[in-house]
Write a structure and sequence with these properties.
Blueprint lengths: L1 H27 L3 H8 L4 H9 L3 H10 L2 H8 L4 H10 L2 H10 L2 H8 L4 H10 L2 H11 L6 H4 L6 E3 L4 H11 L8 E5 L5 E6 H6 L6 H4 L7 E2 L4 H11 L3 E5 L5 E6 H19 L12 H28 L1 H6 L7 H25 L1 H5 L1 H31 L2 H31 L9 H22 L1 H4 L1
Parallel strand pairs: 1-2, 4-5
Antiparallel strand pairs: 2-3, 5-6
Helix pairs in contact: 1-2, 5-7, 8-10, 15-16, 17-23, 19-22, 19-23, 21-22, 22-23
């Protein structure tokens, strides 16, 4: 069975590569008809990958082969941050036509990455109707429901019959983002209900919509944070959710594909912050641009490191008397930093996924405290035994062991409490990055270690 599967996969890959080679050959030979036949037969994701691999002269040829509508589908399969360079190398009229073909929310996302002057030039060149929709989305604050919603949806009135709605669907469905659910409004365009396509199909054509719609509709405010909306999709398994203003008037919808992008964006942002890297750093940045974005964090950590150095200097007399204490500084600081980072990761993940709302923050802090006590005690006992056997000094072993135990407990608490504090202050908890927590725990662990060493100096001698 396994051999047959591997053989099938090998044949599929060989067929895929042969198709790829034919496509590349037709492009290089400027064979328009063959290229279009082979290229448009591919999935848009594969089309995007093929396009990305090309040099600029070949990309220019592809622009000439594809209509704006066809190329817009390829853009939707790419990371929008990676498309900016392509838009700048295209003919301005061609790029504006592509933006007009894209869903309004996708166009708004792309334009948000550009300078203000470039945005205005694109909006001026776009079709007036598309430009107006995009402008309305650009007015909303970034990372809110308004900035990620689409205005390409179908709303139906509660006084319409099923027959009227079915006719409306035939006319408007091709331009809608999704029609799995239809949102029902009244004459004031207030959201009053929702109905699924299945319920619509099985209903009698003379039935009035308000008689079969569900009034239990979950909507989000236009100002709601995108991360909270992602949690809503996860909890309710939604395919789409309506967006309303403060008077409950329907403004747009957010679809699950938009939320998948949000989840990826938020995860990438949290990962970058946890690593102490600017969230807007891209793989396309030059070495100078990358260094410019990383330096602020590194400079901050450099000054925090100076605090650690000055702390050690305060205990210079202790080190002079018992020089062997210096050997264990990296061990204690490293253990505290690693433990704090582990706790930080759990806390940030819990805040991002909404687990804390379900279990309670106090319960999770107490759990982390218990975890710190157990890991600290076990690590402390192990290192105390090792040092006793190694150095034949029971007091030194106990000192390092107790220092590690206390440091790990404090580091675990800091790693879980600091992100919660930041969240309470409406600051992204991921800002409590791994390097920041590590350096902070270095300071705390060294303070604990040398304070205890100074107190028990007579026994160490």
């Amino acid at each position: 069975m396994t051999d047959s599967l591997e053989k099938y996969e090998a044949l599929y890959e060989e067929k895929h590569q042969a198709h790829w080679r034919r496509l590349q050959t037709s492009l290089e030979q400027d064979d328009l008809n063959t290229f279009r036949e082979e290229f448009l037969d591919m999935h848009t994701y594969d089309q995007a990958n093929f396009f990305i691999e090309q040099e600029e002269d070949m990309r220019q040829r592809i622009y000439g082969y594809l209509s704006p509508a066809e190329f817009a589908e390829i853009i939707e399969s790419m990371e929008f941050e990676d498309t900016i360079g392509y838009f700048t190398e295209m003919n301005p009229q061609y790029s504006a036509a592509i933006l007009s073909e894209l869903p309004a929310d996708d166009t708004a996302d792309i334009l948000n990455l550009l300078e203000k002057e470039e945005v205005m030039s694109f909006l001026t060149a776009m079709e007036s109707e598309s430009a107006a929709e995009v402008k309305s989305l650009l007015n909303y604050e970034e990372k809110t429901a308004g900035s990620i919603m689409t205005t390409e949806f179908i709303a139906i009135y509660n006084i319409h019959t099923v027959k009227q709605v079915m006719q409306l669907l035939k006319e408007e469905a091709p331009d809608a983002e999704t029609i799995y659910y239809l949102y029902v409004i009244d004459e004031a365009k207030t959201l009053v209900g929702v109905i699924s396509i299945r319920d619509l199909i099985i209903a009698d054509e003379d039935t009035v919509i308000k008689e079969i719609m569900s009034e239990k509709v979950v909507a989000v405010s236009v100002a709601k944070d995108q991360e909270e909306i992602a949690q809503l999709f996860r909890d309710y398994d939604f395919l789409a959710v309506p967006v309303v203003d403060f008077q409950n008037r329907l403004l747009g919808i957010i679809t699950v594909d938009d939320i998948l992008d949000v989840m990826e964006e938020e995860a990438s942002e949290d990962y970058s912050l946890l690593a102490g890297v600017s969230e807007d750093e891209r793989h396309t940045d030059t070495a100078f641009q990358a260094a410019k974005k990383r330096l602020p964090w590194l400079i901050i950590l450099l000054f925090l490191g100076l605090i650690t150095a000055s702390l050690i200097r305060q205990f210079e007399d202790t080190l002079d008397q018992v020089a062997i204490l210096a050997i264990f500084i990296p061990l204690i600081a490293g253990m505290a930093g690693n433990t704090g980072t582990q706790s930080l990761a759990i806390a940030v993940r819990g805040l991002a996924s909404g687990e804390f709302q379900k279990q309670g923050k106090l319960k999770l802090v107490l759990r982390e405290l218990g975890t710190g006590m157990i890991t600290g005690s076990v690590s402390g006992v192990v290192i105390a035994i090792v040092i006793f056997i190694w150095q034949q000094n029971l007091v030194l072993g106990l000192l390092v062991g107790v220092s590690i135990m206390a440091s790990l407990i404090v580091a675990t608490l800091a790693g879980s409490f600091i992100p919660m504090l930041m969240d309470r202050l409406n600051i992204d908890p991921a800002v409590a990055s791994g390097p920041f927590i590590t350096t902070l725990n270095d300071i705390i662990s060294i303070l604990i270690y040398f304070s205890m060493a100074t107190s028990f100096m007579s026994y160490l001698g």
